[in-house]
Design a protein that fits this description.
about 280 residues, 12 helices, about 80% helix, about 0% strand
Length: about 280
Amino acid sequence: MTDLLSKPTRRIDIGEVMNRTFGAIGANFPVYFTLSLLLAGIPGVLIVLGMTIGLPALFGQMDAQTYAIVVALVALAAGLLSLLPSYILIGAITHGSMVHFNKGRSSFGECFATGLRLAIPLICLGIVSAIGYFLWFLLLVIPAILAMTRWAVIVPAMVVDRTGVFESFRRSADLTRDNRWRVFLLGLLYMVISSLISGAVNFAGLILVGGMSNLGDPSSYAGDPYAMANYTTIGGWVMLALQILYTAINTMIVAAGTSALYYELRVMKEGATSNDLAKVFE
């Protein structure tokens, strides 16, 4: 009992998680990027187009108060919808990452097949988690952030451990216990990386649009690349294409990072090997 109580708590290595994340992306970039385009970039932009073009066309004649309510409800539904394919994406990239950590390589078809095979439970997982996050945010921001750290690896838990929806939440909570501050720091790092990528993409877009003729005023896209008026010019569509690129890259990093974090937690807390974790896909 004394030995058990005095046993030190092991901490995840943030640097190792980052190395595994970008190592997996580098080794599988064509597969991961294509998956991210199909399951994150294109769906996300289609939702935004529906919000910026479809809603005004369908409901623009309403009075301002009613229109604001419609926009709020559609935005909530759109936010939920945008999460669903991303959960399938994380499932697909989890497959590729676990195989990569075992020094193997998975094809696009193998990764996509895993995400597709688990599509229904993954979508259910996405819906439950979205509702959970929303309810936590209604209470306070800090509890919502804590929930995010507890649930950081729910998708890999479902894919690799073959858990059910609610068991995936419990499994993630067990794995992240005693390391949630480090999980939180990882989340902050990914947010910084995401912001840098977003800034680089927007800057490149403004330079590109500004250097081409008949594309409109490049300053009109700054800060609001999705304004409805932008789609009257080619420049707006250029910015839209770049936004698809950003969304795909950003979601790919998050998906690979989630897989790397799950792998690190399993190895550290349970002594799992890369071969053990890859066997589930054989």
